[in-house]
Amino acid sequence: MKILKLFSILFLSLALSAFAQQSPTQSPPSVPPQYISVKKLHADIAEGRHYLIFDVRSAYAYQMEHIKGAQSLPIQEISYASVLTSLPKNTTIVTYCSCPHHLAEMAYQVLKQRGFTSVWVLDEGIPGWKKEKYPLEGTIANKPFTVYWVIGYVYGPNHVAKSGVEVRAYQEKTQQLEIDKTDAHGFYAMQLRFYGLEPGNQLQGVFGGDTVFFTVGPKTDPWGTRIDDDNAQVMVKQEEFLKTYKSKKLHL
Questions:
Q1: Quick check: helix, strand or coil at residue 65?
Q2: How far is CA 59 from CA 77, 174, 175, 195, 216, in A?
Q3: For 163-189, what is each residue's pLDDT tens digit?
Q4: Among 6, 43, 58, 114, which residue is least crowded by beta carbons within 10 Å?
């Protein structure tokens, strides 16, 4: 398995450009996100309150399915998107994704840095909206999600668990992206709701600065793989996926 460093992966570095507007020497402090539930958002819209809703997933995911009335604003483009330049800074904005809100939180930070004062993150993301059977649009709108799990551990020297490490799964063809962070035990669990994902497709996993390309295996129930990063050695442990899934009591 060929291991590459993150700086050599240009297409994933685009996502990091979402943090443009930062000082070259010091990043501005993060602002704790404000969350809005799918039920609250739906009720407010029904009552006539106006929200500008941004889908920050890939353009491909937006085309497949999105919240009715939402606009596509991929996280890779948000730092330089022209649509934002003419918006009043007091525009009420909601960002959403599907992980359920990691990408939306990234977008929230960029929007706040750009001076927008009324920004919200959709707490349950599009999965929650879909679960409530609220209006959706797109090529395959309202069809059931297929979920692919990527789980595992990230360790540092001497097999010490690393918490707070950002983990990414990415499909280059469709630019679909999911993000998670490791917990106090170095464990992470991502639910990939990648449209059109099939056995044999290639995905990319990034663990801090370590990268691995891996192939999606045959569909199982649950469907997924385990990938560990032990001191920069990234290992795909497909045979340990189901055992780990059950031991962690994971479920949809």
A1: coil
A2: 10, 8, 8, 11, 22
A3: 999 999 999 999 999 999 999 999 999
A4: 43
